[in-house]
């Protein structure tokens, strides 16, 4: 009611009742790695800054071509988009001003078109001299430089076809990126770097990166550990690759105390990916090995968008690969097959049998076999994450309202309405939300603290199908029945 005098009519809005709960985004991939940002326009170059990428055009605009060797982000983006549209947040850690190497007196000869390509792209501080090293040529007068491509084109009458030159220069060198760069920190200016920069996603874009990959770098145990820690913070999943060259035995042993690879974790936030995949490389017109995780991340995001986050990504065809690092025995009715042995210890692998193509094979997180509850299934855990985040974020509109029966009823109805919608979608089998007076003593309510409960059950994946058969002699009685 107004505090001032009123001689007339007024309307007071009463805001009560349940409010819709908005489902949070789950199909968001977070990629941390290196990119040839020197290929991007000056205003599009970023270092340790989350960049939202929604398609392959934006991928090339901000992070260059996958044909440039030695960089992880362009190929990871291409793999992630193979299955279809996805939302990707990318953090490039390579800074050409920091991660660089120097070349002294590289000897080159101008070709017939008076152009020569240096041994490395992404060059800076270029000094071009004659073959003896006594005459220094001037950019823009004697030659033109394409720093991104690393090409020098002669100008005027001096630098003609066949002229020998010596060139000193620095070049962006992704091999100079170390684990600390990928892991990241908070710098002196208060900016997050590396993996830590993904923590800025929500404030920047209104959603979090839920599928975290660091292709080629997650094989390092220090980086894999930090990926899991980040996944715990954002309630996401870290997709971790085994090192290239790992055998099946080493992958399985890697789950134990004598293992020598980065698979010694029981985190429910880790998905262990093995083996590497074979992909056609247009730059070399040949095949190369690439991390499985970047394809699995794209499939997980596609499955979320296509069917729902409660669906498993297992038994989904992998697009864009021509093979796998090593053949694995795979039969759906053979418990001694290699793919089954890998699944049995919590490793997600690739199924390839007659007529099947290459398929993701495995539902369980690294928590298996240490844990045996339904949450060891990735899709079950992620369903809980989506439900939890959606309910929590929707409570902003209720926080600091008067703690009375109307507020309690509104929150309970919001939760129940949301769970009914999930039941209708098939995301959960059943669920309920309620207020329990036993959880809410007067002492807590007096402090402004109110507690609600909800439960739910997602469908588990039909990972194992069993038939029981019987030899029924009674069917012999039908013999001769038509004579």
From TrEMBL:
Q: Which domain of life is it from?
A: Bacteria
**Gene3D superfamilies per the UniProt record, alphabetical:** 3.40.50.11780
Q: Which residues form the Tail sheath protein subtilisin-like domain?
A: 190-366
Pfam families recorded for this chain?
Answer: Phage_sheath_1, Phage_sheath_1C
Domain annotation Tail sheath protein C-terminal: ranges: 378-468
Family listed: Belongs to the myoviridae tail sheath protein family.
Name of this protein = Tail protein
